[in-house]
Amino acid sequence: MRPPAGEPVRAAGALVPSGPDALLAGLDDQQRVAAEALIGPVCMLAGAGTGKTRAITHRIAYGVMTGAYAPNRVMALTFTARAAAELRGRLRQLGAGGVAARTFHAAALSQLNYFWPHVVGGQVPRLLDGKGRLLGHAAESLKLKLDTATLRDLAAEVEWRKVSGLSIEQYAAGISARAQPGRLTADQVVAMQETYERIKDERKQLDFEDVLLAMAGMIEAEPSVALQVREQYRFFVVDEYQDVSPLQHDLLALWLGDRRDLCVVGDASQTIYSFAGARSDYLLEFPKRFEDATVVRLEQNYRSTPAIVATANQLMRGRPGALSLHAAAATAGQREIHPEPSVREYATDMAEARGVAQRIIELIEGGARPEQIAVLYRVNVQAAALETALGEAGVSYQIRGSKRFFDLPEVKQAVMSLRAASVSIVGEPLFKSVSDVLRSLGWSQTAPETRGAVRDRWESLNAIMGLVDQAVPGTTFRQFTDELMERQAGQHEPTVAAVTLATLHSAKGLEWDAVFLIGLSEGLVPISYAGTFEQVDEERRLLYVGITRARRRLLLSWSASGQQQRSPRVRSRFLEEIGIRTARAAGARGA
């Protein structure tokens, strides 16, 4: 499924549109309404696969091209460095490269680094890499022996308290409603938080939440800071607005002041971080907050087949804020190429993993590319059986969230070598310049026949080589390495020829031709500790995110028992709701 024809910007090697009309030519009717609403409050309710990123970037570029926006006065905000890098790349292709696209934390930290020496004096306190070590010191101070898992859960509690805008006293007053990390009592959890904050202050350090808190406090307390911040940025766009926390919402309000040029984009059905403080209320209540807001509903899905879209709609039917997605009608030929979603039952987790591996082999032998296949699951431990099964089958895979692409030694070496060569090599075709450097590091146009480390190294170098095909025509070697280093800084990874294994949470924002959703039994989806209606509904939204990652094939499965589980499992209630008939796999490999 592709966006409407006439799009002036191609995915690989885009050209800047020749004028405003050309810029809007490829948008559908609702995307165009959003793009032309440049002034005042705008709310885009954008369902999965409806082209929201394109609507955002075209709206900003249209504002710049028509003169409504000065590029340096626009701030586009999102939640991950990868998403921010993608926004910057698309805006650059559309001729709006001067627009700032950052995460909330990156924007606040940049401002804090600028204002701190003038307002407080001296350098900004050192930023903590993580909370674990300092929480460990707090535990030692309180004579508590805590394992790594408990310290990790305590770090999540600290983050939730801060992004929810609660003081320690306010947190303590409502702590009885929250599950306590490990075997700690409520009093011990409060004492740990108090000690953590005391040690952090004594050491003159800040954590990530402190960056937002400090910047918000500075704007509130110092009129000169507020004036300068608001003078710098006039127009704001916030992507994934359903994930905004109270702290981020308050900081955004301070950045805005009494202005109203705010465009928010989100989908309440993709709110999957409530446990971390995200609130979809801000998105759903935006039209009440701004009664004159332009509200646009993006419901035309360009990603998935009609059958996949229908499955997603069935799961979310009647849920608050749920959008009704529409896909283009499929022809008989399309139905043959893109089969209906399926559900398969296996005897055990290992049988399920081997059955999935066998079906992946069949897809690849049928012409599917490994990088366009993903297996999604609820918890990390489910990856172990998949790794075993895919290893047995000789299928290359990568685990999303494991070692990052740009942290691989061969990639670091390649980036440094390319950068050094780009200083002296000019005038050659880009392909020749890049391929010459990568050949010196072991790359070849033909993949090695062996598997293992040699093949893994080649795949990494080949992924960099693949970026040459995506470069804008006329890109110089130096410009290519500039963009490569920007990708490295933002961890915007290129595609590697391997099947992706990922949790449902980490799959958000991504898409593949074929998606396997495994482990769809009670206790996993929904997870066993989802006891309240709200928690079960979040699990529903998580499954919705998984379903809507699929473009052409959606293959769901579950197993009747785990490796060491005595009591039999029951298939997920969500499978009952979507109403797809279950096929039972006869053997371990599930033909």
Q: What would a concise description of this structure say?
A:
The protein has 591 residues and is of the alpha/beta class. The chain is 46% helix and 13% strand.
Number of helices: 24
Q: Tell me, briefly, the overall form.
A: globular
Q: What share of the residues does DSSP label as strand, in percent?
A: 5-15%
Q: Sheet with the most strands?
A: 7 strands, parallel
Contiguous uncertain segments of 5+ residues: 1-14, 587-591
Helix proportion of residues, in percent? 40-55%
Q: How confident is the prediction overall: mean pLDDT?
A: 87
CA-based gyration radius: 25 Å
Count all strands and give the number: 17
Topology of this structure?
Elements: H1 20-24, H2 29-36, E1 42-46, H3 52-65, E2 74-78, H4 81-93, E3 100-103, H5 104-119, E4 126-127, H6 132-141, H7 148-163, H8 168-173, H9 186-202, E5 205-206, H10 208-221, H11 223-232, E6 235-238, H12 246-256, E7 262-266, H13 281-284, H14 286-289, E8 294-298, E9 300-301, H15 306-316, E10 326-327, H16 332-337, E11 342-348, H17 349-365, E12 373-377, H18 383-393, E13 397-399, H19 409-424, H20 430-440, H21 453-470, H22 477-490, E14 499-503, E15 512-517, H23 533-547, E16 550-561, H24 573-578, E17 582-584
Describe the protein.
This protein has 591 residues and is α/β, with parallel strands linked by helices. Helix content is 46%, strand content 13%. It is globular and about 65 Å long. The model is unreliable at 1-14 and 587-591 (pLDDT under 50).
